[in-house]
Amino acid sequence: MNSPEANAAPTPVEKAAILLMTLGEEEAGAVLKNMGPKDVQKIGLAMSNLSNIQRESVDNVLDEFFGDIGNQTGLGMGNDDYIRNMLVSALGEDKAGTLVDRILLGGNTTGLDTLKWMDARSVAAVIRYEHPQIQSIVVAYLDSDHAADVLSHLDEKMRLDIMMRVAGLESVQPEALAELNSIMEQQFSGGSGRQAANIGGVKCVAEIMNHIDTTVEATLMESIKDENEELGTSIQDLMFVFDNLKEVDDTGIQALLREVSSDVLILALKGADDEMKEKVFSNMSKRASELLRDDLEARGPVRLSDVEGAQKEILVIARRMADSGEIMLGGGGAEEMI
Q1: Rounded distance between C-alpha atoms, residue 79 and residue 84, angstroms
Q2: 282-308, pLDDT tens digit by residue?
Q3: What is the pLDDT of residues 162-218, one digit of tens each?
Q4: CATH fold for the domain made of 242-323
Q5: Residue ranges of the domains in the chain?
Q6: 115-238 in CATH: which number?
Q7: For a FRET experiment, which of 64, 85, 175, 256 has its CA 20 to 30 Å from that of 303?
Q8: Is there a contact between 96 and 37 (Cβ–Cβ < 8 Å)?
């Protein structure tokens, strides 16, 4: 695709690319967060091809969306850094890294990378009838939250087999990974991209377990321990659980509490020990902590599954905030902003 000329009306994708290039990286990233992977790729590719844009083209696009903004723009200069920073803001470092390479180097979404951009149900359908070792490599290759969603669409016996195999993975030979990539490419078009060989292991299983639904997690963990109790214990030791929030510093806890509803917090604390409760109370105003204490005392018996669900919800928020740099899990708090 060439840059839109003054006498040629830009396509809808080109219009979107021009519009986003007029925004700051943070604002453009926020827009892209609400788009699907394929749309992000199309617009990102269009943005990477913008150069020497005619001012009339820019003015026409901006007139359509916001009205005439007049002055000359700096579009088309330093696009690579802009696109890279914008996509990291929108998608996070890991997902953006692969996509940036595909956009800026002119590549396509292929093989294993294609699976990262498919919804969990579709990935489960793709690997359902593959050999268990292939299934385990695919699950280990995905982001942990994505892998957890994929497992939720597979039956219980298959989940156990996959997780046991993932725990046993430490690395995959480049040749084997390339062969697997080729197998995946039989269903998708394009060439191969860079692939990491170090995947899997106990830590990978723990990260996936952190994102699995509480009920499924409990059943799966029990099955893993039945197969290998030592392995199950090792996985649990590496998982980030509600009790680990004690290690988050006060600034981080305060930021987290602002994102958690009162009802969820009350349910979660019903199953917490006194130390965890005091950690929360001490990071609230005196009035707020008194109200929370009263609500906890007034709350009658609750189901264990409800407590675990509330704690899991808080952990999901905590991990999301940690990924965005707002807090630091395990102590240290968020980086100071100036």
Answers
A1: 8
A2: 999 999 999 999 999 888 888 888 888
A3: 999 989 887 777 777 777 777 776 655 444 444 445 677 888 888 888 888 777 888
A4: Annexin V; domain 1 (1.10.220)
A5: 12-107, 115-238, 242-323
A6: 1.10.220.30
A7: 256
A8: no
